[in-house]
Structure formats: C-alpha cells, structure tokens
Design goal:
This protein has helices spanning about 5-20, 20-25, 25-35, 50-60, 75-90, 100-105, 120-130, 145-155, 170-180, 220, 250, 255-265, 370-380, 390-405, 425-430; strands at about 40-45, 65-70, 95, 110-115, 135, 160-165, 190-195, 275-280, 295-300, 305-310, 320-330, 330-335, 340-345, 345, 350-355, 360, 410-415, 420. By secondary structure, it is an alpha/beta fold. Helix 7 runs parallel beside helix 8 (about 145-155), helix 8 runs antiparallel to helix 14 (about 390-405) and helix 12 crosses helix 14 (about 390-405).
C-alpha cells in the first residue's frame, strides 16, 4: 500500500467513522468498512482473471477489509463473466480494463494480484512496484532467469511487499513437514526425491491456427513473446506447454515442490549444478513444446534434489501421483499437499526401528492462508511467507533444468553471484529473453 495514503487514511479514519459521511457511502462499502478502520482497508486489482487469478482474488476477499476495485484481462468475455460474478456473489462493484497499465494508474489501488500466464508476470510486477503497489504474483516468478532478477531488483528498489504465489509456504501440512524435519526426527536429510505425474502435462490435442475469438486481444496476450497466429492450444490454460509463455510441468509444479526441498534446508539460492534430460515420448498428436518426460538433478554442495515427471502416467512412488520424499538417515518423510507420513529405517543389529513411524498427518493446503498472509504483510510490514528471493531461487532452478534439457547441454554450472551459466555459452543465451517490440525489457530506477 502507498505509505502516504495509509498515513492519510490513519488520520482520516476517526473522522470517517464519526461523521455523516458514513451515511453517504454506498451500502456495500459501508458494510465492508464496519469494524475495519479505513487505514486497514486494502483495495486490490486483479490482472489476469480466467482461472487462478480469480480464485486467489476470492481468497483475498475473505480477509476482512479487502475490497476489489478493478479487473484487467485481454479477454473481454473473461472480464464480463468475472465482473458479474463479483457483483452477484461477492458484493464487489469493479471497473474493467484490457490494459494493465491503465489499472496501475489508479491511485486508490493499493495492491495487485497477477494471475496472467508466466511470460506476463515480469512487466506488470515491475511496473506495479514502480507505481507504489504491493504485489501478489503467481508462480513461477517469471518465464526466464533474467526476468526473475529484475523483479527482485524492483521489489527492493521500490521497497514493496511482493508475495509469490507458492501457497505451500502458508500450508499447515508443509509447516508440519518442516517442523518435523528440523526437529531431527528423521536424522540428516541429504537427498530429496520429487515426482509429478500429471495427465494434463500431455497438453491439448493439436488444432489448426485460426482467428482469435471476438473480444480477445491476441496481440496483447502475446505481448513481449514472439509473434504467432492465434491457436486455441496456446491460449487459456494450455499456454503453459509452449516455451514462449511457460515451462511445462518443470516450472508449473516444479517450483511448488522444489520449494519444499529448499525450505527443508532454508536455502534461498538456486542450485549451483543442474543436470537434466527431457523428451517427448507420449502422443505426438498433442500440441506441446515442453517435455512430457523429464528427469533433473539439482545439486548443492551436500544436498541433492531429484525431480522427475512422467506426464500421462498416474502411478508414482508410495502410490502417490505426485509427492516429495525427504530421505533422512533414520527414516523417509513423504508428503503431498494433503498429508505427510514417516517410514522409519530398520536397524538389523538392534532389531528396532531407528525412528518412529508416523501415520498420515492431514491439514489445510495454504490456498486461503497465503493471501491472508500477504494482506497481513501489507498491514504490518512483515516479510511475506514467500518472499521474492524464494520465488526466484526455485524459478531459476527450474528454468536451468529446462535450459539444460532444451539445449542438449544436459549439465549446467550456475554462478549465482555473476548471474551466469559458466560452462555453456549457448545455454547462457537463454538466461535473458528477447522482448518483441514495442515491449522492452524493464529497467529499474
Ligand atoms: N499457485 C498455484 O497453485 C497455481 C495454480 C494454477 C495456476 N497458477 C499460475 O497462475 C497463472 C495463471 O494461470 P491460469 O491457469 O489461471 O491461466 P489462464 O490461462 O486460465 O488465465 C490467465 C488469464 O490471463 C489473461 N491474460 C493474458 N495476458 C494478459 C495481459 N497481458 N493482461 C491481462 N490479462 C492477461 C488471459 O486472458 C487469461 O484470462 C500462471 O502463472 C500459473 O502458473 C498457479
């Protein structure tokens, strides 16, 4: 929130509460103001409204004192549908925009939620920070390494609160996992195995290019990405299987689950060495550039994280289609978003288990708590649950794996101080994206 505006609201809050002005406010605003000081009201705008962004907005609206003033989308059909839903189901009267820069000009908006495809995370975040707004940006932080870097720079330079949408950082299940691991119950953890086998990773069926549907600004959807005719498989939802807009399962689920391996050791930097192989093994009739099958290894000095995805295969280790196994000296802790459990190691000499077996422990998944944490950070100035440095660390790691597999270099050495892949020139060329004109790579300051 604009700090000056918050101070102004603090001064005027008593006045608003005690004068006839309350009687002049629309009923909806009056209801939302009741019991909440104007200085604690947070006005948000949403950029990218079709799916995730809207769900995140609804969870923001469950927090007392949060109002939605505006929506932005390049698809007028989405805008109309979501604005109607907000009015009918959530008592929110919103303005609608098709260009996020116009939304960012509004002085009465304190924070924005960014729910656009990954190639459209960087520019709105940097410009929102510059406009003095706090930001909840969906994961992965960006669609390239250098975009992640400039987003960190903007957050720090403009002194904004930026929450990355890795909501597992606010989940009871994963907090329980971290507490258990850090208490030492499974001993030292030197390796983490992660798997994510999802059907949707195969991508949609191939269809020919065509005209964009009425109301869709396809040029604005492409934005800084390279020019391409409209194709439904590059649009809502399935854009994530094309390198221009996303990174397939490696970045889509990779950042969520790799994040848990980093959290277990409180790491906030990408891995220094990344090895990855990826291929297209399933169903050539699908529209997809990203790898349906992939294995990657992320190596820190004394810690190895192994990732694999097999799109379209629904069977996985521990009978879970996705999960994280923290392999400890004394036992293995296995978790997904709904539960965690421990499988103890057996000591043949003493004929006893080395640690306690833990039956599945369940808890909430963080979808609601993460937006609430963001609002608390805006109000109190505390660090958000998933600060931008953490979003960067996992996104950079996932992008390195994709770059290793795409360039056929397979093994990359990442120098985080120099922001550079130090062992492969062609791979290093992919660290910074080429922005298509009239868009240009953002500058801070
Ligand atoms: N945290 C999670 O668990 C989670 C879950 C799903 C998706 N996501 C993330 O949320 C983001 C959105 O994913 P989705 O599944 O909702 O995609 P989606 O395609 O369903 O929705 C994206 C919306 O953004 C709009 N859009 C595109 N360019 C825009 C622009 N320049 N300005 C304004 N609007 C624009 C599209 O028209 C569309 O309505 C992605 O980054 C994705 O990785 C996170």
């Amino acid at each position: 929130m604009n700090r000056e505006r918050r101070q102004f609201l603090h001064k005027s809050s008593k006045w608003i509460a005690s004068t006839a002005l309350m009687g002049n406010l629309p009923q909806i605003l009056r209801n939302r103001h009741q019991g909440i000081a104007p200085s604690d009201q947070v006005n948000v705008g949403l950029i990218g409204c079709n799916n995730r962004g809207f769900h995140v907005l609804i969870n923001h609206l469950k927090v007392d004192g949060v109002n939605c003033l505006a929506l932005c989308d390049v698809d007028q059909n989405v805008l109309d549908r979501r604005a109607k839903e907000l009015q009918e189901d959530h008592d929110q009267e919103v303005a609608t925009y098709t260009d996020f820069r116009t939304l960012l000009e509004r002085q009465d908006i304190d924070a924005v939620i960014i729910g656009t495809p990954d190639h459209w995370h960087c520019l709105p975040t940097v410009l929102a920070c510059e406009a003095g707004k706090d930001v909840y940006v969906e994961k992965p932080l960006a669609n390239s390494i250098e975009e992640c870097n400039v987003m960190v720079e903007a957050t720090r330079y403009y002194k904004r609160i930026v929450q990355v949408g890795q909501q597992q950082r606010s989940s009871e299940v994963w907090k329980g996992v971290m507490d258990y691991i850090k208490s030492g119950e499974i001993g030292a953890v030197q390796k983490v195995d992660i798997w994510a086998n999802f059907n949707y990773g195969l991508g949609p069926k191939k269809v020919p290019n065509g005209q964009p549907p009425a109301g869709v600004d396809w040029e604005m959807f492409l934005g800084p990405a390279s020019d391409h005719s409209f194709n439904p498989s590059r649009y809502h939802g399935s854009w994530r299987f094309f390198w221009d807009y996303g990174g397939g399962l490696m970045t889509d689920w990779g950042v969520h689950l790799l994040d848990m391996a980093l959290w277990a050791k409180d790491l906030d930097k990408p891995a220094g060495k990344v090895l990855a192989y990826g291929s297209q093994m399933n169903l050539p009739d699908r529209a997809r550039e990203t790898h349906d099958t992939m294995t990657a290894v992320f190596s820190y000095d004394d810690y190895i994280i192994q990732w694999e995805h097999n799109a379209g295969k629904q069977v996985g280790p521990y009978d879970q289609l996705y999960g994280v196994a923290f392999i400890g000296e004394l036992g293995t802790l296995v978790a997904d978003r709904g539960k965690w459990q421990v499988f103890p190691e057996y000591d043949n000499a003493s004929k006893a288990f080395k640690t306690e077996k833990v039956e599945p422990v369940k808890g909430q998944n963080g979808h609601q708590a993460h937006p609430a944490d963001f609002i608390e950070s805006i109000r109190s100035g505390k660090k958000p649950a998933c600060p931008i440095e953490i979003g960067r660390a996992v996104a950079v790691s996932a992008h390195l794996a994709n770059i290793a597999a795409r360039t056929g270099s397979y093994h990359l050495v990442w120098d985080d101080d120099k922001n550079k892949i130090s062992n492969h020139r062609k791979a290093n060329d992919m660290v910074k994206p080429q922005y298509r004109k009239p868009w240009s790579f953002p500058k801070v300051g």
